[in-house]
Give the backbone structure.
Amino acid sequence: MIVRELRAEDWPAVREIYEDGIRSGNATFETEAPSWTAWDAAHLRLRLVAERDGAIVGWAALSAISSRCCYRGVAEVSVYVAEDARGGGVGRALLERLVERSEDEGYWTLSAGVFPENEASLRLHQACGFRHLGTYRGLGELAGIWRDVVILERRSTLVGV
């Protein structure tokens, strides 16, 4: 498996993996994948894909949490793994590389919001140095159900210390 920069031509595979997450009901409040243009505009330039045997099996990206200058080193993490590749170390490889690259780019805090039912994602983030900050109760509604979101944070030991 290799982890590399996500390119525009990767979008069909990335979108398919995103749609896997949407169908699971435990990955996002989104109900459909956006267009490439919308997704591209919503994410920072730090974006990765995991490729195994020539096929993209996962992706990770950062998005800004605020446009205010004081938060320039704070970003939200997204990590998605293809349904048939889950449990094989893809998510960990992506998140570890994303953390490493984020520090190279000057990010001091990474944040993640995870549904409490997504135990694999919670374990992944904790294994990569994220700590549990708390839980937003009924943060948003998905399919008529108000969902809680666990908030996780990783502070760099290299940047902003």
The helical segments are 11-24, 36-42, 90-104, 119-127. The longest helix spans residues 90-104. The chain has a mean pLDDT of 96. The first strand starts at residue 2 and ends at 5.
